Amino acid sequence: MRLDDPALIETNNQIDWLLSRPNVSPWLKDALTAARGRDPVELLSDLSILDCVLRSRCNAQVRSMLEKSGQDV
Hints:
Helices cover 73% and strands 0% of the residues. By secondary structure, it is mainly α. The protein is elongated and about 55 Å long.
């Protein structure tokens, strides 16, 4: 990995910006910090699994809340 790659530099700047924001959740900050030290291929695999599972969970939670409030889903 080239540390002088412009795309990597920009991404690291974006991560730094997010980490400096008080309104970013501690959970996201922890994930971003931990991601920096991870193998990128393993990280992409984990990210795909996380996205699939948490997206399904959140959609189910929102659907359940809407059904309880009597709104159409």
